[in-house]
Amino acid sequence: MDSIIVNNHTFIYGKLLYGNKVRDDFMELLGGGKKVQLLRYYTCRFIKGRDVSSYSAPDPDRYVLKKEYYIRRSNEVAELIKVNKKSILQLLEDKREYVQTLIKKNKLKIGKEDDLIKVFNHYNSLF
User: Fold this and answer.
1) Which residues pair with 28 in a beta bridge?
2) What's the pLDDT tens digit per position in 67-86?
């Protein structure tokens, strides 16, 4: 199975570099195309609550959901990216001028997910 769709969200199965290991897992496809894909990877961690003691109240167990952004070029292994203007422009270096023009003209903020998706979709439309 290459992908699944849940509530209009597409999850693709592929390889990603997680820490220093390559793992196979599902990632959410946010944008992009054949050249570069923008992906979001979810990890969930269980944190055990603190037990009751005579000095403190108990803390409940909880889950922490973490979202990280990855890019994948031409079905290669997906790699973690930093979401800031400088690193995105370095990743898209071959069309840097066009991407910078888009960001300035539309006053995009790379830290906002919707704007980040617009940048990757525009980049892929240049090919």
Assistant:
1) 11, 40
2) 999 999 987 999 999 999 99
